[in-house]
Amino acid sequence: MDAQTPLTKDAADAGTPFYRPSPSIFGRAREAVRGSISTLGGYTLFIFRTLQTSSRLWKRRGLLLRQCEFVGVTSLGVIAVAAIFLGGVLGYQLFMSFKIFGAEALVGGTLGVTLMREMAPVFAAIMITGRTGAAMAAEIATMRISEQIDAIEVMAVDPYEYLVFPRVLAGLLMGPLLAIFFGGISSLSGEAVACGMLGLDYSIFWEQYALRVDFEEMIHLLVKSTTFGFLISSIACYYGFNAQGGAGAVGRATRVTVVISLLAILLADYLLTSMLPYRMSLLKVL
User: Fold this and answer.
1) Half-sphere exposure (CA, 13 Å, Cβ side) for 151?
2) What is this structure's pTM?
3) 184-227 pLDDT, tens per residue?
4) Cα first-last separation, the chain
5) pLDDT band at 20 (very low <50, low <70, confident <90, very high)
6) Which residues pair with 20 in a beta bridge?
7) Within a domain: 1
8) Whole-number pLDDT of residue 15
9) Are the beta carbons of 3 and 24 closer than 8 angstroms?
10) Within a domain: 142
């Protein structure tokens, strides 16, 4: 009886034993897949609708600059703190691991490649998601719930042009800059731990760093961080823009934005990691 639900309230009040069973696990899976496909389609249409307003960017350049300041400048503090601790941990762990094999000289190059290929873009994106993506979703969702977006449309202002596109473009532009900043701070932190605390020679560290961190590593960092910045800002705007319900809708939009953004970052990181080495090998051949 607990696993069954009355079909109608009137039938239940009348004592009619007319029930429908709860959805099976296959039914719930089918509904989840259907909902995911619907959300992906809605997100794709949302992106196309946003890109249609790109021709009017110069008109909203002030909004773009304010969003770049919000995404980039105000995130420098949390990015720097995370980068310092991550670089220190990497420097210590790599030194102690390579010391077992007498290969401490490889710490600088290994740290640089690890940061530029993976750690800097991924961890910078995680910090941006927690600080900026959640704030974007909450702000736009609040405007949707309080009918401010409807008021903007009544005034003949395109909300995609006024609210969405500046935020998406700011995320796309600031993502690479924050990732480069993260990588630089982490490299200095790793050097301070490996050389200043554990005794590795500074010249050996930077010689190996410069030898291993080349154009290919920078391409990885720039492509990944640009993709992550676009995903974070667009997902935040999508869920905030489509928030429905009362005050709880703001919390739901924020929660879903953070979860989906993190999953999208990890999925995109895997796909780009598997694709970029092949593309770089073609460039080297050419």
Assistant:
1) 6
2) 0.85
3) 999 999 999 999 999 899 999 999 999 888 888 899 999 999 99
4) 70
5) low
6) 5
7) no
8) 53
9) no
10) yes
For 112, the token pair is: 């640089």
Answer whether 72's CB lies under 8 Å from 177's CB: yes
Alpha-carbon gap, residue 102 to 231, rounded angstroms: 42
The size of the chain, in residues, is 286
pLDDT digits (tens, 9 = 90+) for 29-57: 788 788 788 888 889 999 999 898 888 88
Domain membership of residue 248 (yes or no) is yes
Q: How far is CA 183 from CA 99, 111, 218, 226, in A?
A: 24, 10, 10, 15
**Residue 215 within any structural domain of the chain:** yes
Tokens of 249: 């809708």
**Distance from chain centroid for Cα 123:** 9
> Which distant-in-sequence residues (6+ apart) come within 8 Å of 166 by Cβ?
60, 63, 64, 66, 67
Residue 56: both structure tokens together: 């009017």
Task: Please identify which residue in the block is written with the tokens 């590795």.
Answer: 200
Domain count, the chain: 1
For 192, the domain range is: 64-285
